[in-house]
Specification:
FAD/NAD(P)-binding domain, 3 domains, alpha/beta, globular, about 25% strand, about 400 residues, five-stranded parallel beta sheet, single chain, 24 strands
Length: about 400
Amino acid sequence: MKNIVILGSGTAGTIMANHLTGDLPKDEWTISIIDPLKWHYYQPGFLFVPFEMYDPEEIRKPIEKFIPKGVDFINKEADVILPEENTVRLKDGTNVNYDILIIATGSDIAPQETEGMKGPCWRKDVFDFYSNDGAIALRDKLKDWEGGHLVVHITEMPIKCPVAPLEFAFLADSFFKDKNMRDKVKISFVTPLSGAFTKPKATAVLQHLLTEKNIEVVPDFYIEKVDGENKKIVDYGGREVEYDVLVTIPTNMGNPLMERSGIGDDLNFVPTDKGTLQSKVKDNIFVIGDATDVPTSKAGSVAHFEAEILLDNIKSFIRGEAFKEEFDGHANCFIETGNSKAILIDFNYEHEPTTGSFPITGIGPMKLLKETRMNHLGKLAFKWIYWNMLLPGRKIPLVTPNMSKAGKDIED
């Protein structure tokens, strides 16, 4: 028997396990997942917890609930990957051998990478919402907060779900309006980018919304440190932004396992062929989701699209055939804009977000790069889709792994 080992039981790892169990001969292959955690979190839900739109209990479920029957779930922590030995060594000293390794270890916040960020003020005046504990702490802070300067800040790119910081700013505007205290809150959006987003057309639309909602944008801000004592952030050029509450997206990094194994880049992301998703470390190692260094969004939709391509490529690899499938960087994201509206963007490596309809040409029902209530309903519906379709590896009707140009106002 040959063995496929999947490192990580998050979105990408779970989807791949479900795909593989349905496609590989059970009398030839065993599948193992290694992960030390007990709970699977619907991470897009962290955004809504601080505003009491979701309860923390409704966005987590036991990991084992989603592990397919017949897959060996090794609920332990990996210590090091030994590519030349085709082995993963666990913290307890056990070796797990593999014929094919799929790295799906995701990414996580690293506030310790910025001076002063994880200091005495951490989760008192300085908060994240990219974690369960951070989202809950921020909820508790905002519940009784009487106002002041709320700064929403991005440390550096890449980050998970690049639109989430914008969504937080928009939802904060709506939240404080509903509490009849928007006039008591100044909201600033501080970013290392030159605009609201990474893509020009989307940036223009989002920048307009920020202005409309009286949210100040501070661009090109490369943070050097958080001065918690004086409640300000300082960039390398000496600029300062004062805050009463700082909501920061710290540096995002891949799993420290990559550093220990000597196979990651400076941020512990694994060098990966952006089309085939085969690692550049060794030919029998593949990478999916946030663990890759491919130049597309680190988002659940991307992992879902990658998984369909990767399944075909792993089957080709097993047969000794050349890869036929290429991932095009397809990503789509709902952007909550507050007041029960949202924007939907759909893009890939080559094409930036543009206007049009989705998923049915000329019909929709969702509009691309437009603020609509239908898009907001789509965002809320995605939680059900995540638990019931995305994780089990089921195809989403009318949505293809590589981006369709149909229904989009794309100029070739």
